[in-house]
Design a protein that fits this description.
It is a single chain. It is built from 13 helices and 22 strands. It is of the alpha/beta class. The strands form four sheets. The protein has a nine-stranded mixed beta sheet, with helices on both faces. Strands 8-7-10-5-6-9 form a six-stranded antiparallel beta sheet.
Amino acid sequence: MKTTEELKNLLYKNETVADAAPDAIAAAQDFCEGYKTFLDSAKTEREATAYSEKLLTAAGYQKFVPGTSYAPGTKVYTINREKCVLAATIGTKNLEEGFHLNIAHIDSPRLDLRPVPVFEKTGIGYLRTHYYGGVRKYQWPTIPLALHGVIYRADGTRVNVCIGEKDDDPVFCITDLLPHLGAEQSKKPLGEAIPAETLNILVGSQPLQGEEKDAVKRNVLVLLHEKYGICEEDLISAELCAVPAYEAMDIGLDRSMIGAYGQDDRVCAYAALRALLDVGQVQKTAVCLLVDKEEIGSVGVSGMQSAAFDTFMADLCAASGTRRDVCYEHSFCLSADVTAAYDPNFAEAYEKRNSARFNYGVGLCKYTGARGKSEASDASAEVVARVRRMLDANSVLWQMAELGKVDYGGGGTIAQYMANRNIDTLDAGVPVLSMHAPFETVSKLDCYMTYKAMKALYEEM
Ligand code: MN
Ligand code: MN
């Protein structure tokens, strides 16, 4: 006969970080100061890459040279096309025993400019956009926007663009209809109320003197020429992104949360990078990989499906005379991407017992996917068991996370592309409220626990 106490222990119950590890509250606040700086410096994948490279070189990481054999403890990195970071600390064990990987993505949903973006309509100058990733279009009008990116002129020279971030910079915005005239618009379903063709960015209204046709557009082009030495055609060979023009900020009287643009998935990217920077001598080679294009399917040369990662790994393995496929087979990966936090405001979309909640720690996703685990790598029981043991042994608070009710939708991430390479992989990350919105919210304790989880993997034997 079991006692009441023993019976209670049979039930699965998780605790908040505040209850289980009160010391973590101050540590999480500290950790998140660096994270907020990262967010403010990294609103695009290019900027996230450049800022990560700064942190890496400051910590003694050197450019990886294929063909070189590196001693244990050596810190190396390489950058793929300014949009991906591949960094490693060489372990004491032979690569045949595999490596420990923490991976995350550094692209976020936003509005990209079209190749021929500038136009004028009835005295107002606009930039035409094509949204990148899964945006809810109604969330993007009437917020301040900044323009970030690069432009290549006809002669091949390059200009870096960043307007809207400095205190005295102008910003941009998209307009919306006033409620007084919004009766018809208000009848439309959310997904149809703001069509993509109306996501046009206000760029100017002052006509160029003496011009009869397109005087506002011409004035905009004159200003662009004066500032950047470019003409309209140069915008064709450009990557310009409109992103929210505000910095990361604390949320709540208790300052327990962070509100910012682009936390999916820079919150996990920062955790993974910080873990690599903070870990000492590792036994298995520790690899941190920050990739692009997750929001549109991990495609292209800078996405997780690109061969760039395999090339880096093959070069690393070659230096120690190891076959890459043997190394992969013995490797382990935490694929860090944000998960949906349970939102009591929209409770009907979630299944409470299997949803991640704020302040319960890093969310482990055995599988993501949509409607029947489609496109999920579905980690094995063995993989989940290993991570559970590792986190418990390192006092890392964790919780299980499914996206929400099965028939409501779903989503994928980069875990499957690592698993496809024959690397045991578990998806893990920070629970987020308002995911993909221009202002996403996370809990600081969860950010900190995700960092601790990444670090625990690197420190494993
Ligand atoms: Mn993501
Ligand atoms: Mn996403």
